[in-house]
């Protein structure tokens, strides 16, 4: 009897488990984003959630722009809680970095990055892990970044949005100024275009692995002369180093970022010319411009967090600009003194929302009590 009972219960467990599995299939589709998970698990007032969702939608829809390196203060201590959304131009190969610091108490920050041409209805939200989010850029063009702290977080904090190279620089001790021939430059009297960049350095300068991976082959042939091919284990890209004076690695070898692979020279069709490295990147889709992958860039230092200004009205005749600077277009001019909410501060520029729902950037001197 006991054994029969046991079998019976086991069958029930198996049946229940199977049933659950099947029920989970549609659930998984909705669970794909951190945002929708959060929305479904939120147990507070519906009105708070409705406001949270609508501020996300208006951040997605606005036309605000920022540059490639930004440090700003996010004021979540407003009467209304806001999401902020900014567009920025990214190139394939850029590593996008989004960082938050100074949150008290610590809170979740949701980040959505919409690629060019993405349906903005399909949010693929993520959460800043340990205050940081990085993302490799696959498609060149205007990307939209939307940032929103969780419901109930009522304080200011600092944020950075910037890009970094996604690989190491291929020539030891050299930098952007040594790249003197770019992607697409005409070759052989217009017969072909340059499928890489040239980095100039004295003969013998070490060339290094731009990423962890393995050497697929080395050789001495054709236009490239002495050459090394490195393959990336993660992205599956091939990195091509040409015109070397000497090769200091061999096919099949595992390498780490920064390992020396050879020395700068002028072999192949560079013979007789200045010594340089020709560097190319070949993805599964073909050759791509290596410059955004390797260009070195500085990061804005963390400043002290800006204080929420006391003046929360804008003066009559204020231009709302699409970005934090006079180089950005004027979206509209506000011809009356009007109360505003202040969402962020980029130095002396403030992202504001007017009482009638317009968003834009104004200079601090346009704010008054
Ligand atoms: Zn070249």
Can you describe this structure?
The protein is α+β, with helices and mostly antiparallel strands. The protein has four domains: 1-30; 39-167, Jelly Rolls (Sandwich); 176-294, Glucose Permease (Domain IIA); 306-369, SH3 Domains (SH3 type barrels). Helix content is 15%, strand content 40%. The protein has helices spanning 2-30, 34-41, 46-61, 291-294, and strands at residues 69-75, 84-90, 94-101, 109-114, 126-127, 132-136, 141-149, 156-165, 179-181, 186-187, 192-193, 197-200, 206-208, 213-221, 225-232, 238-247, 254-255, 260-264, 276-283, 286-288, 313-314, 318-321, 330-334, 338-346, 349-354, 359-363, 367-368. The strands form five sheets. Strands 9, 12, 13, 14, 15, 16, 17, 18, 19 and 20 form a ten-stranded antiparallel β-sheet that branches. Strands 1, 3, 6, 8, 21, 24, 25, 26 and 27 form a nine-stranded antiparallel β-sheet that branches. The protein has a four-stranded antiparallel β-sheet with strand order 2-7-4-5. The longest helix is centred in the N-terminal third of the chain and has 29 residues, at 2-30. The radius of gyration is 27 Å and the shape is elongated. The model is unreliable at 7-30 (pLDDT under 50). The structure holds zinc ion. Zinc ion (ZN) binds next to loops.
Which class best fits the helix and strand makeup? alpha+beta
Rg, Å, rounded: 27 Å
Mean pLDDT across residues: 89
Q: Could you say which overall geometry the principal axes of the C-alpha atoms support?
A: elongated
- β content, as a range? 35-45%
Terminal residue distance: 83 Å
Ligand list:
zinc ion
Give the biggest sheet.
10 strands, antiparallel
- The number of helical segments is 4
Helix content: 10-25%
- Taken together, the total number of domains comes to 4
Question: What fold name goes in the CATH topology slot of the largest domain?
Answer: Jelly Rolls
CATH C-level class of the largest domain: Mainly Beta
CATH architecture identity of the largest domain: Sandwich
